[in-house]
Write a structure and sequence with these properties.
The chain is of the alpha/beta class. The chain has eight helices and seven strands. A seven-stranded parallel beta sheet has the order 5-4-3-2-1-7-6, covered by helices on one side. The N and C termini lie close together (5 Å).
Amino acid sequence: MKCLIVSADDFGLTNGLNEGIVKACINGIVTCVNIMPSGESFENALALLKETGITEVGAHLSLTQTRPLTEYSKVSTLVTSAGKFHNDYKTFFSKFISGKIDIAQAYFELKRQMEILNATGLRVTNLSSHENIHMAPSILNLFIRRAKEFKVKAIRFPHGDRSFHYGINMIYKKLVLSFFEKRMGEILRASDIEFPDHFRGFFHSGKINENVVLQIIGTLEKGTTELIRHPGLIDRELTKKFLFIIIAKWNLKRLPAHILKK
């Protein structure tokens, strides 16, 4: 049997992304919504979930691009002078590798994000991270602790992705994935945390279109595959935040149901 989980990340980041993700759930192929408790539009996301009757979500935890939910004194190594997380994973890991990130502060912040989400009454089915920062072993261990503490059975495992594009950026992503995935797999298997058999979407982030989606679906392997996407509507808020990002067009038309489960 072949099963496909289509995950929509960054729910709660901006109102435009929230609206696009909800449309992709209702009219498209998204089957899992990953919500960001630290997102500026978290409350808007909760309201949309209530309107649409969605009661199960994934927790999309963040230590970059958003703002902390813990007071500044407890997360001082995680934030800028403006009190927000660093703008991207490159800055975060640069500080992390140089020893300027206090892992204990990351622990408390991730716990706080889960507490906020848990208080909503939504059922959390899985954990993932913004910009996949949990691929780093020490961060992954924090996620495993959070999963067990809040009784979440699954954590995202980026591994074995396939590419339909080529170029320098693709080579870079392949190097990143190959560097982290072996150790990540070892840690997850030793923890008894669940994860899908296959993973797609890491290589095509920001470059996906209908043809790529169909290629991925046409090459599904036996077992469960998670396909991550970032559907959304471009609004003023998103443009202001990410002028440097080109968001690929997302086809929100419903695909035949039989291709989601074979």
